[in-house]
UniProtKB/TrEMBL annotation:
The chain crosses the membrane at residues 34-55, 62-86, 151-171. Belongs to the NKAIN family. Its main location: membrane. GO terms for cellular component: plasma membrane. InterPro entries: Na/K-Atpase_Interacting (IPR008516). This is Sodium/potassium-transporting ATPase subunit beta-1-interacting protein. The keyword NADP does not apply. It comes from Zonotrichia albicollis (White-throated sparrow). One of its GO terms (biological process) is regulation of sodium ion transport.
C-alpha cells in the first residue's frame, strides 16, 4: 500500500513538473532565452525518464531523476538571484542569451497589464532595440514573474526529490525480499529432498513348456 501511494504521488508530481517545464519552455522560446531553453529541455527529458522509471519499477532511472533534481533546484536558485540582482548579478545583462543577442524575458513586454509602445528614435537606427520600446502599466514586473516561475519549479522539485528517495527505498526493499525468496527456491530446486526407495528382488518367470 505504501509503495502504491508513493508511486502514485511521484507520478502525479512528475506530471506537474512536466507541464510546468513545457509552459516555461514556450515563453522562454518566445523571449529567445537560450540558457533557460537548454535547461528546460534537459528537465523535460529527465522528468520523462523519472516518470518511466516510476511506472516500470526502474529504480536506476529514478536515481538519475533525483540527482538531476538537485541540480535543477540549484539552477532555479541562480535564476532567482539573477532577476533579483543578488550577489552582483544584473538582469540587464545578456547572460540568459549566452551573449549572442539583446533579447530579454518575454514577460518584460507582455506581462499582465503591460502596454507596449515603440518609440521612434530621433536618428535612424534599429527599431528592434529594446532602448526604443516603452512598456507601461504592468501589474507585476517581469522579474517577479520569472521569480515566481522558478519558485514553483523549486517547490515541485523538492517535493519530488523526497518522494523519489522514498520510492527508491521501497523498490530496493522489494528487490531484496524477492532475491531472498528466489534464493530459497533455487536452493530447494537444486537440492531436492532425497527419498529412500526400498528395492525388492524380482524372481524371473520361467517359460512354460
Amino acid at each position: 500500500m505504501g509503495c502504491c501511494t508513493g508511486r502514485c504521488t511521484l507520478i502525479f508530481l512528475c506530471s506537474l513538473q512536466l507541464l510546468a517545464a513545457l509552459e516555461r519552455q514556450i515563453f522562454d522560446f518566445l523571449g529567445f532565452q537560450w540558457a533557460p531553453i537548454l535547461g528546460n529541455f534537459l528537465q523535460i527529458i529527465v522528468v520523462i525518464l523519472g516518470l518511466f522509471g516510476t511506472i516500470q519499477f526502474r529504480p536506476r532511472y529514478i536515481v538519475v531523476y533525483t540527482v538531476w533534481t538537485a541540480l535543477w533546484v540549484t539552477w532555479n536558485v541562480f535564476i532567482i538571484c539573477f532577476y533579483l540582482e543578488v550577489g552582483g548579478l544584473s538582469k540587464e545583462t545578456d547572460l540568459m542569451t549566452f551573449n549572442i543577442s539583446m533579447h530579454r524575458s518575454w514577460w518584460r513586454e507582455h506581462g499582465p497589464g503591460c502596454i507596449r509602445r515603440v518609440v521612434r528614435p530621433s536618428s535612424p537606427g534599429v527599431l528592434e532595440d529594446y532602448s526604443y520600446v516603452s512598456v507601461t502599466g504592468c501589474i507585476i514586473d517581469f522579474q517577479y514573474l520569472e521569480v515566481i516561475h522558478s519558485a514553483i519549479q523549486i517547490l515541485l522539485s523538492l517535493i519530488g526529490f523526497v518522494y523519489a528517495c522514498y520510492v527508491i527505498s521501497i523498490f530496493m526493499e522489494e528487490e531484496d525480499s524477492f532475491d531472498f525468496i528466489g534464493g530459497l527456491d533455487t536452493y530447494s530446486y537444486r537440492q531436492p529432498p532425497q527419498e529412500h526407495v526400498e528395492l525388492k528382488p524380482v524372481k524371473p518367470v520361467g517359460r512354460s513348456k
